[in-house]
Amino acid sequence: MWTRDRSVTLSVACTVAMIALMVLAGIALPFALQIGIKIGGTTVQGSQGVFLMPLYYCFCVPALVALVATYRILANIRRDIVFDASNVRMLRLISWAAMAGGVVCVVGTPVSVAFLGIGLVCGFVGVIMRVVKNLIAAAADLKAENDLTI
Hints:
This protein has one domain. The protein has 4 helices and 2 strands. The chain is mainly alpha-helical.
């Protein structure tokens, strides 16, 4: 039977796996560029990678920030801390990280038009996370108000 605890455990495992995959991709990228990788229908290798590697590493910063914030939210959920100011802060951090990742991807559009699409999706996720953050903030305020009421 699927439970909340199993769902949180799966989410934690996926978050940790994404962090590991990003680190491994960061390690493998220089080697992949030596043999050439295909992005958006064009093979990128050698000197073209001079732009791709910094782009990827710049994207990793907000992505890892968002993943660590996600992990912290999941840790709070495991401790039954849901409608709390710390989760609101983490959601705000995730939304700004998504938007920053979107900006990095849009900057990478000259390498491939696919980066424009990824950047737009990141921006969209950032906006959605802002809405979720506002919803959780309102719920946290209601919870705090109800906790003061006898």
